[in-house]
């Protein structure tokens, strides 16, 4: 005896059933009985149904999904930058003034983001590392 879960995924509903099946000597499947079954209807208000009938197939969650994608892209970008900072700091490829603003994980400390090619000189103005010497 084998249990089989059947799903019916529709646009506005999801149907499911759990079925017991038996196999004969030839390996042919015979349906024994349905244990459980049910469905879940996804509610849609009249405005969304009207838009859907007009040909606009934008779902209720499309806007949230777009925002989630933007958040993930931003987080991945920050993680790549932190990893690069960590590696370059370990290899001592970063200028000293830049490396001092990083913690051990590659994040900037105290919300300070230093300018990479520029240093503050004694008059508190930015200058290139070559002109500071």
Oligomer: single chain
Strand line-up of the largest beta sheet: 1-2-3
Main sheet attributes: strand count, strand direction, barrel closure: 3 strands, antiparallel
In DSSP terms (H or I, runs of 4 or more residues), the helix count works out at: 4
C-alpha geometry: elongated
Number of strands: 5
Supply the number of structural domains: 2
Describe what you observe in this structure.
This protein has helices at 46-54, 62-90, 96-99, 129-132, and strands spanning 2-9, 13-23, 29-41, 119-120, 126-127. It folds into 2 domains: 1-57, no CATH class; 61-133, no CATH class. The protein is α+β, with helices and mostly antiparallel strands and 133 residues long. 35% of the residues lie in helices and 27% in strands. It has a 3-stranded antiparallel beta sheet with strand order 1-2-3, with no helix packed on it. The chain has a two-stranded antiparallel ribbon with strand order 4-5. The mean pLDDT is 80. 2% of the residues are buried. It is elongated and about 85 Å long. The N and C termini lie far apart (83 Å). The protein has 4 helices and 5 strands; from the N terminus they run βββαααββα.
Concise synopsis of the structure shown:
The protein contains 4 helices and 5 strands; from the N terminus they run βββαααββα.
